[in-house]
Give the backbone structure.
Amino acid sequence: MSTVSDAIVVEGVHKRFGKKRALDGLGFAVRGGTVHGVLGPNGAGKTTAVRVLTTLLRYDGGRAEVAGFDVRSQAAEVRRRIGLLGQHAAVDEKLGGRQNLEMFGRLYHLGARRAGQRADELLERFGLADTGRKAVERYSGGMRRRLDLAASLITDPEVLFLDEPTTGLDPRGRAEVWNAVRSLTAGGTTVLLTTQYLEEADQLADRISVVDGGRVVAEGTADRLKAMVGGDRIDVVIRDTDRLGEAAALLGEGVTVDRDRRLLGAPAPDRMRALTRTVRALEEAGIEAEDIAVRRPTLDEVFLSLTGSGHESGDLASAGTEVAV
Amino acid sequence: MSTTTAGPGRIGWALADSWTMTRRELAHWARQPVQVVVGLVFPVMLLLMFNYLVGGGRGVEGDNTEFLVPGMLALTMAFGLEGTMLAVTQDLNKGVVDRFRSMPMVSGAVLVGRSAADMLQSVAALAVMTGVGYALGWRWHNGTAAALGALGLLLLLRFAMLWTGIQLAMVAGRPEMVQAVQILVWPVGFLSNVFATPESMPGPLGAAVEWNPMSATATAVRDLFGNPGGSSGSWAAEHAELLAVLWPVALIAVFFPLAVRRFARLSR
């Protein structure tokens, strides 16, 4: 699977915390210069994966390489080539923005003068030039995240890790971070992005690995993932709530029931035929429908069905085997 | 971008990184002057309280202030353990340490920065305490060299407490756990000869007090300053100077490597 141009290679990586398997044979490869999304619910192993790849955590088995170096045996080489934006702001909150960046610059061994210049460049680039001496703890969430991102970019890393970069941000802060990430990837940086937000993966990532229970349950582009999970769906709104169950039985396998909205959903891979079949079945049973429509699935449905959380959609949830598109 | 290995070499970078981390702590002080002042005033307050309010040291022959001041200096060094633990747990629970650890810096520099800052703080605390002690009438009687030796022993105790504190903080993990240790520090601190002589205590308690590392430092420092110590003639009291060196060195020998190792492998 992996080729020379892969910036990140993860093969069968295992990590346990006591009895819990945080990573259970995780595997994926990321081509240089692309954005790879790692999508999964809480506890899926996303953060553990990032901590392993950024040398913060030792893994138990498997193979992990970043920028061509082994994460375990060549940690120092890896550290020179990566940037990390963790879930919690990884800056010194008691210090000011410039103080932080200058300190990190010195620790990257840029030298005092260059570290100062680099700090000013980055503050300018991320719109933080006018923050002066203000301590980071008094920054807004979005500003803090941008400073954090600036700190991750001091040495123009080859590979940048973003661990849920917009969790806890308001929509404006989220848009700020997204813009910053987009401008980065235009410069050829490889980005690994973990997120719980499908929209975020959809917006930013070239490819997506859906992770659950410490391993990849599906991988591909957002479009391919959508297409893969049963394709089109049919939605039916039933007039009489009492007859919802009866109608659901008529729709066959994989039905979702939304009682409040009197809405039934089912896979409809054969589109128009499914529509005719459904209309006819309802008519024969004497169940009145208010609305019927065939539509493309949302990425939400893909995610929920693959990770088995939320919706109780039968056959799709059992598709927990590894699928590559 | 020049992040290459060229330059001052590994030891040079270790020093440079350590200095950067020390500057970080100094920058914290500059931003929190009130906290720094409170840290210096608290032991002075204890000294004044025990000098004026709590009354004379039990079993002391001679001037109580002369007995109390060296003891309080030793106590202040020992209580530095709390400050170190608190600072380390607060740091570890923030993302910034993750960033340090994912960078190509010398990882021990974070701990060196912590210890440099704590030692500087302790030097300042000693200066303030001896100044206040002088104002209260405490004097040293054996010349400058012996007095400097006494201060050296005090800082050695602080250095031992520093690495003990770093290791305990990493084991405890969370600031809440530090509170538990803080509560324990008090009885251990008072189970010493800082406020009373061991002879004035019931047998087993007196023996425990004699062998408390803090008692060794306090007794040695009293001897060096020429202050009354109420020497009991026991082996521990007779060899206080030796113990005042051996105890801290032993603690450092145990906790320094443990702490450095643990920090390098800090992976949950």
